[in-house]
Write a structure and sequence with these properties.
The protein is α+β, with helices and mostly antiparallel strands. The chain is built from 3 helices and 6 strands; from the N terminus they run βααβββββα. The protein has a 6-stranded antiparallel sheet, with helices on one face. Pfam families: AHSA1 (PF08327).
C-alpha cells in the first residue's frame, strides 16, 4: 500500500459451520493440495515465513507469504502487496466453525491492475462467499 493511510474499508468476513472435524478442514486450508481443490493452484507450504505463489488465472501469479501459523486453528498470509487473508478454525464437536477474513482494504488504494479497492472488494466479497461453500463441500466429501 502507499505510505499514506487512506480510508479503511471493512474486512471481508465469511463464517460457516463445516460438517467435518477440524483436522480435516485444516488439511483443506493448510496444504497445497487442499488449497488447490477449492481455491486456486499454488506453491504453498505450511511454514512460517514461507513465500509462495497463488496462480490467479487471468490475473497471473500473486506472491504471498505465510505470516501466522497456529495448527489447526489459524493460518494467515500476505496476498500481494495490499492484503492479508486469515483462515480461523474452531472445533465444535465433530464440526468446525470456519471464518475467512480478508483484510487490508483501503478506499484510496488502486491495485496493480488499476482497479480501486472499493470495486475489487465488492467482487472479492462475492467470490469468497462461493469459495467458502466450495471449501465446505470439499472438506465434507
Amino acid at each position: 500500500m502507499d505510505s499514506h493511510k487512506g480510508t479503511a474499508l471493512p474486512d471481508i468476513r465469511h463464517t460457516l459451520v463445516i460438517n467435518a472435524p477440524i483436522d480435516k478442514v485444516w488439511d483443506a486450508v493448510a496444504t497445497s493440495e487442499g488449497i488447490a481443490a477449492w481455491f486456486m493452484p499454488n506453491t504453498f507450504e505450511p511454514v512460517l515465513g514461507y513465500e509462495f505463489i497463488l496462480e490467479a488465472g487471468p490475473f497471473g501469479q500473486s506472491p504471498c507469504k505465510v505470516i501466522e501459523l497456529d495448527p489447526p486453528n489459524r493460518l494467515s498470509f500476505r496476498w500481494d502487496k495490499d492484503w492479508t487473508v486469515t483462515f480461523a478454525l474452531e472445533a465444535d464437536g465433530d464440526k468446525t466453525v470456519f471464518t475467512l477474513i480478508h483484510s487490508g482494504w483501503d478506499a484510496d488504494t488502486v491495485t496493480k491492475f488499476n482497479q480501486s479497492h472499493t470495486d475489487v472488494r465488492e467482487r472479492m466479497d462475492q467470490g469468497w462467499g462461493g469459495l467458502v461453500r466450495k471449501l465446505a463441500q470439499y472438506a465434507e466429501g
